UniProtKB/TrEMBL annotation:
Its cofactor is FMN. InterPro entries: Flavodoxin/NO_synth, Flavodoxin_CS, Flavoprotein-like_sf, FMN_Rdtase-like_dom. It holds the Pfam family FMN_red. This is Transcriptional regulator. It comes from Pseudidiomarina marina. One of its GO terms (cellular component) is membrane. GO terms for molecular function: electron transfer activity; FMN binding; NAD(P)H dehydrogenase (quinone) activity.
Length: 195
């Protein structure tokens, strides 16, 4: 059995993309297949490295991890626009019972990372996804002095630029692993009609 995990992110200058790559390491470590996808922002150029997500890919995934830079305490509008185009998937319940998680990158501490992570989870809950965080048994969550929180993976640029600290990297890998392990278990449950 395989588990395809979409890592859907928007990144203008690469910091969120670096976090997406660390999460992909975690997906691979747990035996999943990371599918790196992005969205393009209206009037706000996005990273061109990965392909734009299609609605078909969205409904076929076994899990989804959503990433955005902090934009005044919220996700980037390009991602919000994307979710507003997913009504058909929502009405058919195509993401229901699949695991999800969120990640973000911001320029400084205490300036909107937690509100961004929590609000990014809202459309995923509306889609019936099962939201995963990072537990306190993950040492990076207790030891970090920059990003990484129980609400999701994160990175603080101040003093580090795009480079993740070791704790930010470890937390991002742990989140990728956690969603992938959940994806395998939930896929089995869906196949057996239990979800
Ligand atoms: C319009 C705008 C609003 C932003 N708002 C915040 C903010 O509220 N808090 C914060 O820490 N950083 C904020 N930033 C900075 C970005 O979140 C930060 O530089 C991020 O790491 C960029 O990610 P990227 O390299 O993936 O594009 C803002 C940037 C822009 C352009």
């Amino acid at each position: 059995m395989s588990a395809s995990i979409i890592i859907l992110y928007y990144s203008r200058s690469g910091a969120t993309q670096t976090l997406a790559d660390a999460i992909a390491d975690g997906v691979l470590k747990a035996g999943g297949e990371p599918l790196m996808r992005t969205v393009t922002g209206a009037g706000d150029p996005a990273s061109q490295r990965d392909l734009e997500i299609s609605q078909d890919e969205l409904k076929q995934c076994d899990g989804l991890i959503l990433g955005s830079p902090v934009r005044f305490g919220h996700m980037a509008s390009a991602l919000q626009q994307f979710w507003e185009q997913t009504s058909v998937t929502w009405l058919k319940g195509e993401l229901e019972g699949k695991p999800a998680a969120v990640f973000t990158s911001g320029s400084s501490m205490h300036s909107g990372q937690e509100s961004t992570l929590l609000s990014m989870g809202v459309p995923l809950l509306h889609h019936g996804m099962l939201l995963c965080g990072i537990p306190y048994t993950e040492p990076a969550i207790q030891q970090t002095q920059s990003g990484a929180s129980p609400y999701g993976a994160s990175h603080v640029e101040h003093g580090h630029g795009k480079h993740l600290t070791e704790h930010e990297y470890q937390a991002a890998v742990a989140l990728g692993q956690r969603v992938t392990v959940a994806a395998f278990a939930l896929k089995t449950a869906r196949t057996q009609g239990k979800l």
